[in-house]
Amino acid sequence: MRHIIFFLVGFLPIFSYAQDQQEWLVKMGDNAPNFEFTLADSSVKNLHDYKGKIILINFFATWCPPCRKELPRVQKEIYDVYKSNKNFELFVFGREENWDKLIPFIQKTGYTFPILPDLERQIFSKYANSGIPRNVLIDEQGKIIYLSLGYTDEEFNNLLTVLKNKLN
């Protein structure tokens, strides 16, 4: 029994720290941090270029099992539905991944939404420390209106509801 108590007392702070590391660095209602990124056509953009639109940012990694469950739904239930809506933009960033990993992934999966590199976590680190998949939904004024970490059907359905209310 003493060993169990020692274990719990000794390791609870570490478990708590690990959870803290997955906390958001932003909150709903905040202005979305601006950042610069390069599109597949090599043009350089920044988030503020899209002010006036509803923007969904998704952070994922090609090796992440929950991300692999979420992305088919992103394709079918978000991108395929809203890609022609002039008031919507979607950017999916591969955390710690470059084109050498992303291009084969895109070819293998057939995704048609923009998947872009965030090799050094320069974009991700403006929003969080760790933990993927993550979704950040930004309104027309540049305010964060929805945040999600991880993938569950319920959480994804909540995102769909918020998107539908903003875009329909």
Topology:
Layout: H1 2-20, E1 36-38, E2 44-46, E3 54-60, H2 65-82, E4 88-95, H3 99-109, E5 115-118, E6 134-138, E7 144-149, H4 153-167
Helix pairs in contact: 2-4
Describe this structure in words.
The longest helix is centred in the N-terminal third of the chain and has 19 residues, at 2-20. Residues 4-21 have low confidence and may be disordered. A five-stranded mixed β-sheet has the order 5-4-3-6-7. The chain has a two-stranded antiparallel ribbon with strand order 1-2. By secondary structure, it is of the alpha/beta class. The protein is built from four helices and seven strands, in the order αβββαβαβββα. 38% of the residues lie in helices and 21% in strands. Helix 2 links the parallel strand 3 and strand 4.
Give the gist of this structure.
The protein has about 170 residues and is of the alpha/beta class. The protein has four helices and seven strands, in the order αβββαβαβββα.
Compute the separation of the termini in Å: 59 Å
Count of helical regions: 4
Sheet/helix structural class: alpha/beta
Instruction: Report the portion of residues in β strands.
Output: 15-25%
Largest sheet: 5 strands, mixed
**Large-scale geometry:** globular
Unreliable stretches: 4-21
How are strands sequenced across the largest beta sheet?
Answer: 5-4-3-6-7
Helix content: 25-40%
By DSSP, the count of extended strands is 7
Backbone CA Rg: 17 Å
Mean pLDDT: 89
Helices and strands, in N-to-C order?
HEEEHEHEEEH
